[in-house]
């Protein structure tokens, strides 16, 4: 089995799969709101700097570990640094991916249910009550969650090239087309000026607000799917002649573009109907359906397109999360991809059922959070930054500068030394700030 490790079929296959992981719920329901409430173009600038000083280095670090070791998130550390405890960094990543997928699947299921709803006439009337009733139900959300997980399992089951790569090559162009089409339509509704003011207004005072920096760094981190072994696992299917810096740059640019265009879908429509900007599940499942209904006949179609898009974005992230666990368990228990994918999928779905039930059907809380919010908070605020921090320290402390340059393909660049400097000193500090502030916010 060792010698036949799977590989991506092409450069673009790898990029699109990675982009599929990065583009997800975070882009659609969080980025533009964070931008609008965090100083508009000031936030954008701070975000881009965060990406440069934190996102790019961490992505490069994860890429270089995976490609160098050609193994799963845990084994990679063991291969490069035998008989050390560094593999724990990968272990945190695998755990994070496993836990995140459990509730990501629940939200993916909600999105599929809404897609179905728009196939059969759309959500009408009190959209807030509709949503609360649906997620508070016992069986229905679990049914849709299982269906969503079944899709993810099906794709990962088929394998890296024919499953993940092929579906990404199909889904990413469709997603890009749909989001651009929706943005153009939304901007005809009459709220564009206000939307642009909300999103891009230059509020330079934001530069003095520490919270804006923490939000921007946290967003850079989450939206690029860092700290959960994804980039590491995906790059382990690369052959050595892939150029890592340009791949990372392309993924980051596409992900950011997608986030901004999502804002151009949501906010012009929102302002056209005089609604207040919001973020998260409420925005997607309560506010948008109100707008779709107000649009009249065409609204059902627009709603359908939107929820197809939202489901696909969630699905392409879900498969990357699943692949991390599958790659790990395949090696750990020396079993075939098919068996491992099915069993892992079932385990993650069952854990997700607890999250689903915690949304109203049952009282399942941890430290005062619903189970879903607890897992979300714990992974996002603790596991992800911790795993990424360790990976960065691993590479910058235990590899010689020459090795770092070689394994990140920065040897013959003029910026290689600055890259090492940023990765060694600035990125870990920034992650530490994210970790501490995130935990303080979460625990308070
Ligand atoms: N990057 C995805 C987004 O922006 C989120 C995600 C996080 C995906 C973790 C996979 C893993 O929504």
Q: How is the topology of this model organized?
A:
Layout lengths: L10 H12 L2 H13 L3 H29 L3 H8 L6 H33 L7 H10 L3 H19 L1 H27 L5 H9 L9 H14 L6 H6 L8 H29 L7 H15 L2 H37 L3 H21 L7 E2 L2 E2 H28 L2 H7 L8 H28 L1
Antiparallel strand pairs: 1-2
Helix pairs in contact: 1-8, 1-12, 1-14, 2-10, 2-12, 3-4, 3-10, 3-12, 3-16, 3-18, 4-5, 5-7, 5-14, 5-15, 5-16, 6-13, 7-8, 7-14, 7-15, 8-12, 8-14, 9-12, 10-18, 13-14, 14-15, 15-16, 16-18
This protein binds phenylalanine (PHE).
Account of the protein in words:
A hairpin with a 2-residue loop joins strand 1 and strand 2. This protein has 444 residues and is mostly helical. A two-stranded antiparallel ribbon has the order 1-2. It is built from 18 helices and 2 strands. The chain has helices spanning 11-22, 25-37, 41-69, 73-80, 87-119, 127-136, 140-158, 160-186, 192-200, 210-223, 230-235, 244-272, 280-294, 297-333, 337-357, 371-398, 401-407, 416-443, and strands spanning 365-366, 369-370. The relative contact order is 0.19. The protein has a single domain, classed as Hydantoin permease, CATH 1.10.4160. Phenylalanine (PHE) is lined by residues 21-22, 24-27, 100, 222-223, 225, 228, 317, 320-321. Phenylalanine binds next to helix 1, helix 2, helix 10 and helix 14.
Describe the structure in brief:
The chain has 444 residues and is mostly helical.
């Amino acid at each position: 089995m060792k010698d036949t490790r799977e590989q991506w079929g092409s450069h673009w296959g790898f990029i699109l799969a990675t982009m599929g992981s990065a583009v997800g719920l975070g882009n659609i329901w969080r980025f533009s709101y964070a931008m609008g409430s965090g100083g508009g173009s000031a936030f954008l600038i701070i975000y881009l700097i965060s990406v440069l000083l934190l996102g790019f280095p961490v992505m490069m670090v994860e890429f270089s570990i995976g490609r160098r070791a050609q193994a799963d998130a845990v084994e990679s550390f063991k291969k490069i640094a035998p008989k050390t405890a560094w593999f724990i960094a990968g272990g945190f990543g695998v755990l994070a991916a496993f836990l995140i997928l459990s509730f990501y699947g629940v939200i993916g299921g909600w999105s599929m249910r809404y897609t179905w709803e728009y196939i059969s006439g759309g959500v009408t009337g009190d959209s807030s009550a509709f949503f609360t009733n649906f997620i508070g139900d016992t069986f229905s959300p679990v049914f849709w969650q299982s269906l969503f997980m079944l899709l993810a399992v099906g794709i990962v089951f088929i394998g890296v090239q024919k499953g993940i790569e092929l579906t990404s090559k199909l889904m990413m162009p469709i997603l890009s087309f749909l989001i651009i089409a929706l943005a153009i339509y939304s901007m005809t509704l009459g709220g564009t000026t206000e939307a642009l003011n909300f999103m891009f207004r230059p509020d330079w005072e934001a530069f003095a607000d520490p919270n804006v920096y923490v939000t921007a760094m946290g967003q850079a981190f989450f939206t690029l799917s860092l700290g959960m072994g994804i980039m590491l696992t995906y790059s382990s299917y690369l052959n050595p002649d892939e150029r890592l810096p340009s791949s990372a740059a392309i993924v980051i640019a596409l992900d950011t573009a997608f986030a901004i265009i999502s804002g151009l879908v949501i906010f012009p429509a929102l302002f056209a109907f005089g609604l207040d900007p919001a973020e998260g599940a409420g925005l997607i499942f309560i506010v948008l359906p109100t707008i779709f209904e107000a649009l009249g006949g065409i609204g059902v179609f627009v709603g359908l397109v939107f929820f197809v898009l939202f489901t696909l974005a969630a699905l392409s992230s879900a498969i990357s999360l699943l692949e991390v666990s599958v790659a790990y368990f395949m090696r750990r228990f020396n079993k075939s991809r098919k068996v491992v994918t099915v069993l892992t999928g079932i385990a993650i779905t069952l854990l997700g059922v607890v999250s689903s039930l915690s949304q109203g059907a049952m009282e399942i809380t941890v430290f005062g959070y619903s189970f879903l919010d607890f897992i979300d908070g714990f992974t996002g605020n603790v596991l992800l930054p911790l795993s990424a921090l360790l990976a960065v320290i691993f590479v910058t402390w235990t590899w010689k500068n020459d090795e770092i340059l070689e394994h990140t393909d920065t040897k013959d660049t003029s910026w290689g030394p600055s890259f090492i400097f940023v990765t060694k000193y600035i990125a870990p500090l920034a992650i530490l700030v994210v970790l501490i502030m995130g935990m303080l916010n979460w625990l308070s």
